[in-house]
Amino acid sequence: MKLPVYLYGHPVLRAEAADVDLNDPTLPKLVDDMFETMYASEGVGLAAPQIGKSIRLVVIDASPVADAFPECEGRKLVLINPEVEVLDGDPISRSEGCLSLPGLSDDVKRVEHIRLTWDDLDGNEHSEEMSGFLARIVQHECDHLDGHVYIDHVSAIRRQLLRSKLNNIVEGRIRCDYPVKAAARRKK
User: Fold this and answer.
1) Quick one: average pLDDT of 144-165?
2) Would you name the residues annotated as active-site residues?
């Protein structure tokens, strides 16, 4: 089932997400719904807070960007209670967008080499070093679990320049090709 994507300004996007209970019988269905929502929105990642669930759950399918970023080939992941450890390297600036901030993108500095630890749906623990754009996708989605969005990583001046666009998103005055839930109700 396609779920609405919560837009910038909604309080759930600023809350620190709770750990996932691996024994929750609704978890597999939620994961399926998240993938369906992500695909319908043409995203490569989706965090549970973006669908109004304040839990530490992320789905990623980075395959659509594999032509430009080979490390993303075949990378379809369900990350339960993920933890990111920054490894070495200077931050590199690349353009990022977000389903919760439709129509916007900006350059964000992130490190290109991380270690990710997570559980899968079967309760198995994984740990893997990731680099390049895949590491960026993981960091972007895991930021949502800590109450952050990519716009938090841009300069205050840049955020000020985007203020009217951000206000339009908060108010739901945007056009979007996928179902969304705005933070504020539109005034009639």
Assistant:
1) 95
2) 141
